[in-house]
Design brief:
Blueprint: H1 3-11, H2 17-36, E1 43-47, E2 52-56, E3 62-66, H3 77-93, E4 100-104
Length: 105
């Protein structure tokens, strides 16, 4: 769910850009607070072909055009890189040369 979708649920269509900025800042501040409490970094896999993200749906089903908020997260960079490499290899055998990038969130 995006920030704008959250705001629409709270305010309907009566919101301003200032409301969006205020809530986005609150979310960033909250994330910083939890990081200071010792939570580990999280990583996501970005599909460079469409600038969307990877989401695991089932054992062998994947979504390669998810929004960042719904992307599958990994608790280690190594696991995310490994999965990105596997996805690249699997898709290459199908003739799809899709590259992936691991991002920290």
């Amino acid at each position: 769910m995006t920030t704008k979708e959250i705001i629409r649920k709270i305010y309907g269509n009566n919101y301003t850009i200032e409301d969006v900025k205020r809530i986005e800042k609150a979310v960033v501040d909250e994330q910083g607070h939890w990081r200071k409490k010792g939570l580990k970094k999280m990583y996501v896999i970005k599909n460079l072909a469409n600038n969307k993200y990877y989401k695991k749906l089932e054992e062998h089903n994947h979504k390669l055009d998810a929004e960042r908020e719904e992307a599958t997260t990994f608790n280690s960079q190594e696991r995310a890189i490994s999965k990105a490499s596997i996805l690249h290899a699997e898709l290459s055998t199908l003739g799809l040369g899709i590259n992936f990038k691991v991002e920290e969130i």
